[in-house]
Structure formats: structure tokens, C-alpha cells
Amino acid sequence: MRRLAWLVARVWIAASIAPLAHAASAAAHSPVLIEAYGDSTTLGITCSDGHCGPQANNAVTYLQDQLQARHGERVQVTNYGVGGTTATQLRDGMGGRRTGPTTGLPWQERLAASPAQIVLINYGINEVMRNQTPEQFYTAETTLVKTARALGKQPVLQTANPMPDNRLNARLAAMVAMTRRVAAEQQVPLVDQFAYVSGLPDWKTLMSDGAHPKPALYRLKAQQDFQVVEPLVQRLLDGTP
């Protein structure tokens, strides 16, 4: 009887472990999909000789390159940056360029249809240019984060890079404070690009105009993103919560 009970116990344990092992194996082989939402600094605008346009050498591309160098092509980062837009527009489904079937939908619907596990959110500059209040920005970003988490996504907030104009930059600092506040209140990861770039020597020489970095600064920003995003990717690949 004791041997029979021992055999039954072994069978039960093996049956219990098998699904967990299968789930861990599946997680290790499943792709990690990341979506980057933001304004023209997410899209990757750079200006030269009075002409501005999106560049292949942008922070999102550099981030994907770094993640794939570590984890291979199973990590994909999609750029949904749209020039001139705000967090409020993303929330409400306004101001987006047509890049897919869910573009133009309110955030709740758009994200519900998204396969991404991680979403990056980068706004603040156009809020300044459109005279929004920090409180309006705070409300919009809070909604973006709460909605993402409710849908099982991992939101990552990014503060905007600074602006060379001192007057505009002072107003941007108030928006940045709201992003930091949302990250702290909602307990989500934060990439503080504003603090990082502001601390670089002669950072203004790395800007192509009053808002957009040169490719070299986009690369530096991507390195900061990588420090925050890569551990999240690793956990997903490991199948750990």
C-alpha cells in the first residue's frame, strides 16, 4: 500500500509540474512586443538646414537594436510616435496618422486590440506648445497608465527631453513633474530623460532645433530606455511575474 501511495504521489507531482514547465518553455519562446507612443521625439524627427523629418536613427530604433543584440529578434519594438500630438489626443483617439487598423481609436479600444506586453509613453512638449495645464497633462497620463495596466500591459513612462529655450523649458519642467508624479502614484517604471539630458555637458549642442534631438542624442536616450525596459523584457522571457 505504501508503494502504491508513493507511486500515486509521484504521478500527481509530475502531472502538476508538467503544465508549469510547458508554460515556462512557451514563455521563453514567445516574442516580446513593445509599442512606443509619443510625439515627434518618439517618431524620430531631426532638423537640418531648415528641413525637419523622421530619421531611421531614432530612439525607438536604437532601443530595438540594443534589445535584439541582447535577446535576438524575438523582441520587437514598434514606433507609434506622431508629430505634434499630446497625451490627451492619444487617450481620445485624435491626431494619429493612419498606421494600422486601430489607429484613431480611443486608447482603451486601441490597446485592447494590441498584442504588446509593454507600452512606452512619451509626451510633454506639445502640451507646452498648446498651452495645456500641467493638471490636464496629469489627468491624461494617469488615464493612459491605468488603462494599460487594466488591460494587462506594462506601461513605462518617459519624461520629455528638455528644450533649449529657457522660457519654454521652465514650462516643460512643470509637465515633467506631472509625469514623475504619475509614475510614483501608479508605481510604474520611469525613464527620466529630462533629468538625464539636462545633466549632459553642452546638451544643447545635441539638439537639432528647439525640440528635436540629433541622432547622437537619440542614441543616448535609447540607452536610458534600455536600462529600464530590458529587465522587463527579461522577466517576460523568463515567464516570471
Automatic annotation (TrEMBL):
InterPro entries: Ester_Hydrolysis_Enzymes, SGNH_hydro, SGNH_hydro_sf. Keywords: Signal. Residues 36-220 form the SGNH hydrolase-type esterase domain. Pfam families: Lipase_GDSL_2 (PF13472). GO terms for molecular function: hydrolase activity, acting on ester bonds. It comes from the Bacteria. Residues 1-23 form the signal peptide. This is G-D-S-L family lipolytic protein. It comes from Paraburkholderia ginsengiterrae.
